[in-house]
Amino acid sequence: QVHVVESGGGLVQPGGSLRLSCVTSGGYFNIYDMGWYRQAPGNEREFVADITSGGNPNYADSVMGRFTISRDNAKNTAYLQMNSLKPEDTAVYYCNARRLWGSNAGNFWGQGTQVTVSS
Question: What is the pLDDT at residue 39?
Fold first, then answer.
């Protein structure tokens, strides 16, 4: 069983920055695609960014140029650096570890971390 734990959320003013971390345990981190999703009250959970097991990143249009996803396989950790934050970025941010095929396939979610952007 893979366990996923996010941290780093908090309250920040518009234009500020936060760095989220996602630590995994109980699995083989290097085989998973890692992603960040977010959910605001009344909204569906939406894609923010992901990075494949091979290190290829993808971003939602709404965060392109402001957010950067990365991973450190030696630390079993994925990161989301968030710059130029906007009030519209306010949400609970969830980390996802996913492998869609083959041995050790699975789809695992963390408990979420709150990000609030407000003056």
Answer: 98
